[in-house]
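Q: Convert this sequence to structure tokens.
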Amino acid sequence: TNGYWTDYMIEHQYKNRFNGTDSDGRSLTNLEKIFLDRFPLVVATQQRAVHFSRIIQSHVREDAVIASLPCGLMRDLLALDFSGIKNFKLIGIDIDNKSINYAQKLAERYQLSAHVEFYQSDAWNQPFENHFTLLTSNGLNVYEPDDDRVTALYRQLFKALRLGGTLVTSCITPSPDTDPNSEWNLDVIDWDAMLQQKTLYSDILNFNPRGLRSSSVTKMQLSDAGFEDFDLIWDEARIFPTIIAKKPRS
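A:
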């Protein structure tokens, strides 16, 4: 799917959760409210986005070159506060042309088109080398079951960063029914919503990501790709951790 629905799901938490409507002012159905407000994976996604935003904002400075891969609608970059910053570049890379078109329109709304470039590219063959001061990457690894392919992806992200550059990425951790060592915080899981989530995602939408990995496995793969100096920020349920990693300065 393109980035539109991920953006919709994330943006819901900032306004529409409190008034019970969608972005067009339509009242949400009960099922929509359960989906957007209670599904554990959705709530974890929303919290993950908040962490990403705070981290990326801390890297906004003069001459920053910040990229998102895959960019989706790229609101994680476009909605940042660039007050007082004159020289910066935002790069969006995505294989999906529809997502890029949405992102271009959003860049116009934020009046940032002069600072933004978009590239349609497969993440495993992205063209940049030693280019970005910060790179965000969310979502690709959960669809790739092959560990070697995921490590190869991380090597591409490593290559794209400048020396000393920062990667902000994430993973979805396995649930207790698939991994006895699951990292989930079971005390905060809404189990009724979890059952409904499973029915909707697995049985109806056929959404079954096969690339779920623990935070320790993800850090090991990032380390194998050359990254170091890791920091881990959890969502409340410990489903969707944010991982910050550095490319060495030499």
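The CA atoms of residues 178 and 205 lie 20 Å apart.
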